[in-house]
Amino acid sequence: MAKIVGYYRNVPGGTGVNGVTMSWKKKVDDSVVATDATAADAYGDNGEFSFAVDGSPGPSYITGTSGSETKVRDSRETGYAGTWFPAEHPYYDYAVGDGVMNGIDNSCAVDAPGGMNIRVATGQILNKGHLYRCTAATTVAITAADATHPRIDRVVCRLTRIGETQEGKLELAVVAGTPAASPSAPAATQSSATWEITLATVAVAAGAASITNGNITDAREYCFVYPLTTTGDMLYRDANGKPTRLAVGTSSQVLMGGTVPTWGTVPTSALDAELQAIAGLTSAANKVPYFTGSGTAAVADFTAAGRALVDDADAAAQRTTLGLGSMATQNSSSISVTNATVSNSLVTETLASNSDATLGTSGGNKHTIWGQTTRDGSVPTVTMDAGAGTGASGSFSTSCDEEMRFNFTTGTGTSNGTFCSIFFGQTRLDSAFNVQITPEDSNGADLVYNAGLYAARVSSNEFELKTRNAPTASMSGSLYISVRGRA
Fold this sequence. Notes:
Layout: E1 2-7, E2 21-26, E3 32-37, E4 48-53, E5 60-66, E6 69-74, H1 89-96, E7 99-101, E8 110-111, E9 117-120, E10 123-127, E11 130-134, E12 138-141, E13 151-160, E14 170-175, E15 194-204, E16 216-218, E17 222-223, E18 234-237, E19 243-246, E20 254-256, E21 262-264, H2 273-279, E22 287-293, E23 296-301, H3 304-310, H4 315-322, E24 334-337, E25 340-343, E26 346-350, E27 356-359, E28 369-372, E29 381-384, E30 401-409, E31 418-423, E32 433-440, H5 447-450, E33 453-459, E34 462-467, E35 476-485
């Protein structure tokens, strides 16, 4: 809100003239901003006019005519048409604040110059948009002390607010307190008519004849003043309510809390234990941190191969990375492999002619089985062993349940008709075990009857596959072997 107050007076004599229509116009196009008729003011002076509008119209002038005389006042003239009273200042003050402007001159500090007086030093005070400038130290009298009781007075900067008879008046004053055995300072008046800003309180002892600095308590409040001088400076309110500059910090510093903020470095002890554990590690290529306990950490190898597996989206992608075939997803009770199948305890393998292979699994009642195809002119063996390797000793449990189907292609055999030995390691297979050896052709037919093949026991742990007559041609089929305990 902008407000202009002025007077239309005759020349010579300066007599105010009432009833003159005054027009406030824009210079850019002579359009009328506002009009007002002159009239007597609150003091009885004639010829007063006033305007109040939101904002400012920019370059403008005020004109009025009385009889043959026309008066014009231009906005570029000093003292243009009276004083501007910004009614919106209270709203602006919410951002700027009321109080002493810190750091200007002596910041209106209060002291005791002697006698029953206080003195306000030079400085500036902002009170609801009105500036009080104290260009020289100002002495204000303290009223006489009470003879019986002490009291506490309040030193203030007092504003008479817009709309009052003395609107715009700013003065330094002392508000006397009420004498009492335990006195308290009177409250500062802050109303629509009067607004007081406290500078200090003064303890007036009973019967005192003078005031000392020891009787004065600083109570200044401070408004916002721009004290920042360097890019990155910060402003904070100190313990006395002063807006105070905090110079910009240096690289890697952080703002530390407290009554007075400062720049500093966060100590390691202030960090979370887990963060400290990570921070204490030494990083290196192909390493990854991990926790070894509460508040402890270490690094582990994280190779390119490991990263390639970890970044896979799902198990199927991971099997591809590992190079696993379809066997990795088969049911454990029935697995198909190249040239062989495993179903429960039955192992079936097809071996190329004149080759060796290892079949089966180890552990529990499952035992390692080795097989070898027949070779022309020799007696190869098929070994089922209870141990962990070829030729190792071991014992079959009486609860064992072992099966093997060995696919073979014979040579012409030996002169005595033996073309295959079945050797059960170094284990004695006595009457506690039921051993069954059955030769079958490719169609599953019993070769004992069709080709004269039979299994003959030659020792406690060895059988031979024989023919009644030496074979004259190669023969293909499978040899079914089972060992079951008679528990």
